[in-house]
């Protein structure tokens, strides 16, 4: 009888840019589980795990270290053949989320390194507001030193959606043309964290984001990106973040 061939692990069949985009969406969905009871999200978590594992296989291959690390993350915590207490089950859930977070974060960084510089730019059609949000939030959340945002139509939602995920200790500098509505009140509250400046200048016309020595140009104001018109986010190469912002403003 012919010998039965051993199963050959399936290789990657998605391009890095597609895998990165979907993993960013799954990474965002993962944040929605945090702080909740495991029982309340048990079904949603199972669906998330199945979809994310399939994405990892498509992007990295069945036998990759990435898929192996993801599978190991599912078993984070303490387990017993006789079962564990509800308290330990909840703790296992929290540790599992942390492990998933670390695995996806490292996998996304690996994918970013695989992309040629030209592929780091993205175009967004009308209605792709969430895709734009995920991409820009991912850039800001990865900040390690300084963040500098230039945009002349910022509102208070910008803080909740984009500034809050920036790690503590990172210098955040924002330059806009005019501090409108309750933006000033929100900025003063945020300034309590330290390492923050919000200033205004009538010379602000373009939209730029600078993070970790890299810069991006954005086609529309961040608050309206891809809402009514197509837009883009293009990396413009290395750039130095100014040590202090000119113009009037406040911060700490």
Model description:
This protein is α+β, with helices and mostly antiparallel strands and 252 residues long. The chain folds into two domains: 16-114; 119-251, Endonuclease Chain A (Endonuclease, Chain A, 2-Layer Sandwich). The chain has seven helices and eight strands, in the order H-H-H-H-E-H-E-H-E-H-E-E-E-E-E. The chain has helices at residues 16-31, 42-60, 65-73, 86-114, 129-141, 157-163, 183-190; strands at 122-124, 146-150, 171-176, 196-200, 207-211, 214-218, 231-238, 248-251. The chain has an eight-stranded mixed β-sheet, with helices on one face. Helix 6 links the parallel strand 2 (146-150) and strand 3 (171-176). Helix 1 packs antiparallel against helix 4 (86-114). The longest helix has 29 residues, at 86-114. It is globular. The chain starts with 15 loop residues before the first helix and ends with a strand.
CATH topology of the largest domain: Endonuclease, Chain A
What number of structural domains do the residues give?
2
| Termini Cα gap | 77 Å
**CATH homologous superfamily descriptor of the largest domain:** Endonuclease Chain A
| Helix-strand category | alpha+beta
Helix content: 40-55%
């Amino acid at each position: 009888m012919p010998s039965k061939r051993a199963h050959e692990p399936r290789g990657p069949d998605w391009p890095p840019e597609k895998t990165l985009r979907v993993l960013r969406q799954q990474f965002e969905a993962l944040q929605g589980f945090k702080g909740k009871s495991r029982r309340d999200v048990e079904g949603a978590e199972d669906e998330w795990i199945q979809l994310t594992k399939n994405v990892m296989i498509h992007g990295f291959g069945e036998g990759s270290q990435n898929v192996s690390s993801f599978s190991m993350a599912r078993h984070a915590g303490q387990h017993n053949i006789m079962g564990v207490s509800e308290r330990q089950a909840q703790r296992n859930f929290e540790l599992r989320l942390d492990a998933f977070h670390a695995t996806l974060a490292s996998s996304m960084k690996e994918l970013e390194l695989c992309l040629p510089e030209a592929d780091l730019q993205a175009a967004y059609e009308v209605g792709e507001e969430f895709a734009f949000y995920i991409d820009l939030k991912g850039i800001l959340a990865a900040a390690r030193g300084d963040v500098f945002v230039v945009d002349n139509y910022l509102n208070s939602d910008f803080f909740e959606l984009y500034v809050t995920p920036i790690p503590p200790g990172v210098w955040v500098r924002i330059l806009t043309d005019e501090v409108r509505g309750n933006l000033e009140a929100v900025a003063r509250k945020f300034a309590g964290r330290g390492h923050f400046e919000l200033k205004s200048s009538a010379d602000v016309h373009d939209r730029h984001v600078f993070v970790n020595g890299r810069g991006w140009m954005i086609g529309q104001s961040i608050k309206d990106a891809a809402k009514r018109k197509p837009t883009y986010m293009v990396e413009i190469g290395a750039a130095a973040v100014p040590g202090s912002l000119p113009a009037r403003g406040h911060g700490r």
